[in-house]
TrEMBL record:
Listed InterPro entries: MFS, MFS_dom, MFS_trans_sf
Organism: Sodiomyces alkalinus (strain CBS 110278 / VKM F-3762 / F11) (Alkaliphilic filamentous fungus)
Location(s), subcellular: Membrane
Domain Major facilitator superfamily (MFS) profile: 56-474
Keyword terms: Membrane, Transmembrane, Transmembrane helix, Transport
Membrane-related topology note: Multi-pass membrane protein
GO terms, molecular function: transmembrane transporter activity
Name assigned to this protein: MFS general substrate transporter
Keyword Isomerase attributed: no
Chief location bin: membrane
Length: 497
């Protein structure tokens, strides 16, 4: 107890001291219950976790940076001339090309979390990243609407395995009150991509005419080349799951490996992965909370993807900015979103809360959407964009941390990650459709849809919080163990509000 108080005093956020107070000092089989620190000082423990952060969070974040940039750069290409050259202004072709990505993206996500366990994240994530980079290059040479649609479909197939794999991999390495900041840094790098993708696109547009290619084509080609280079870096630097064999842990020694596994086992007791069982994998779907998390993620991605695919267009059509201004003015709202995102993650990890952070972000959306949609001044509407962008994007890592804190068991965690991100893909389809050409310039039906999605999130978080309260009370009275059958339940596990 005295040691835990010292840790809290030193603000060492890499150790879940509250969980350690609840759990037995003796970890699962194979852990060193007499010396849970394995002889490491607090400084050495911090250094080990920082080393993991650099090899895992930063590399995954860089790969997600190009992933988000590649799937959302259609809007930049659209105002750079793609819609005219490929005749996308008729029959809602732009909307169709935007949403067609998400059909294979949703279908191929559940098996991807099984595949990543079989072949390992280093190979799986880097190879699909390399392939979708090649597809991006191919998009730069599309000659008509059909070819572009086929390329977007292939992009959806390849990217399907990336995001759920990252969510799953990160959740296995850290204790429950460490993942919030890690998810935020991971997604924050994606926000950096969104923030500067417009500026990058504007710079690449200046290559118009080089090699007889239009400027919008160079956006796809050059960003595809960047993706391939990042994939090669990922192949050399990514790490495997914490329960992998010694050969996959070359950046940590034996004693360091044992400490990492032991601390996660003391926190939630699910480092080891049981053999894959189809019934056990899909039985996770019987838990209604899995679908509540997924619906919250759907609501969040509906708004965030709507902004990703249409913000430059809205800035141009609704607010009257020039093409150059519309490309560059995307950056400040996403930069602001990064600040809000990390602040919320720090509060969530520091005070061991998740739901209030999500609701606070939703309130930013509910304030910003009416301003963005209905205020007569374009400058004030642009201020609303800041609030909506910050609220929607900050909730992406917040929701990931919410579900990761309240799930136990490797295959249930894998199922939940796949389900969560699949519903995020459905949100992408909705986000691709909410702002229609016929609603220019005010896009009021789209604004109403985003407001409704935000309100639904508040309702779902409220229902989950009530259920968590009563379930935790039952566990405190010794009436049940949470998140697991009797043989693999974790004593002391409690849901995080």
């Amino acid at each position: 107890m005295e040691k835990n108080r010292d840790i809290e005093k030193d603000d060492l956020e890499h150790v879940d001291d509250k969980a350690d107070q609840r759990l037995d000092a003796k970890g699962p089989a194979g852990s060193d219950g007499d010396d849970p620190d394995h002889g490491f000082t607090l400084r050495e423990q911090r250094q080990i976790v920082h080393r993991i952060d650099r090899r895992l969070v930063v590399i995954l974040g860089l790969m997600y940076c190009v992933s988000l940039m590649d799937r959302t750069n259609l809007s930049a290409a659209a105002i750079a001339g793609m819609t005219v050259e490929l005749n996308l202004l008729i029959e809602n072709r732009y909307n169709i090309v935007s949403l067609i990505f998400f059909i294979p993206y949703i279908i191929f996500q559940p098996p991807s979390t099984v595949i990543i366990r079989k072949i390992g994240p280093r190979i799986h994530l880097s190879v699909i990243c390399l392939f979708w980079g090649a597809v991006m290059i191919g998009m730069g040479f599309a000659q008509d609407y059909g070819q572009l649609a086929v390329m977007r479909t292939l992009l959806g197939v390849l990217e399907a395995g990336f995001f759920p794999g990252c969510v799953y991999l990160l959740s296995t390495w850290y204790t429950r009150y460490e993942v919030g900041k890690r998810y935020s840094v991971f997604y924050l790098l994606g926000c950096v991509a969104s923030a500067f993708a417009g500026i990058l696109a504007y710079g690449l547009m200046q290559m118009n005419g080089l090699a007889n290619l239009s400027g919008w084509r160079w956006i796809f080609i050059m960003e595809g080349i960047i993706t391939c280079l990042i994939a090669m870096i990922g192949y050399w630097l990514l790490v495997d799951f914490p329960d992998a064999g010694k050969s996959d842990w070359r950046f940590l020694g034996d004693r360091e490996r044992a400490w990492v596994v032991d601390r996660v086992n003391r926190d939630r007791g699910d480092v080891a992965t049981p053999p894959f069982n189809l019934r056990r994998f899909f039985s996770a779907g019987l838990d209604w909370k899995i679908w509540a998390y997924a619906l919250i993620f759907f609501d969040t991605t509906t708004v965030s993807y709507a902004l990703a695919y249409f913000l430059p267009i809205i800035l141009r059509e609704n607010m009257g900015f020039s093409i150059a201004e519309a490309q560059c003015l995307v950056a400040p709202p996403y930069a602001f979103a990064g600040i809000v995102m990390f602040a919320g993650a720090w509060c969530g990890d520091r005070f061991h809360v998740r739901g209030p952070v999500i609701v606070a972000n939703v309130l930013l959306c509910l304030i910003g959407l009416p301003i963005m949609g209905f205020h007569p001044s374009a400058n004030v509407r642009y201020f609303g964009v800041f609030l909506v962008t910050a609220g929607a994007n900050s909730n992406i890592p917040a929701v990931m941390a919410y579900q990761a804190n309240n799930i136990r068991g490797q295959w249930k965690r894998a199922f939940c990650s796949a389900t969560l991100v699949s519903f995020g893909g459905i949100g992408g389809i909705a986000g691709s459709l909410v702002f229609r050409n016929q609603d220019i310039p005010h896009y009021r039906p789209g604004m109403y849809a985003c407001i409704a999605a935000s309100l639904l999130t508040v309702v779902l978080v409220g229902l989950l919080s009530v259920d968590f309260y009563f379930q935790n009370r039952k566990a405190d009275r010794g009436e049940k163990e949470l998140e697991g059958a009797d043989e693999d339940a974790q004593p002391g596990f409690r849901y995080t509000f």
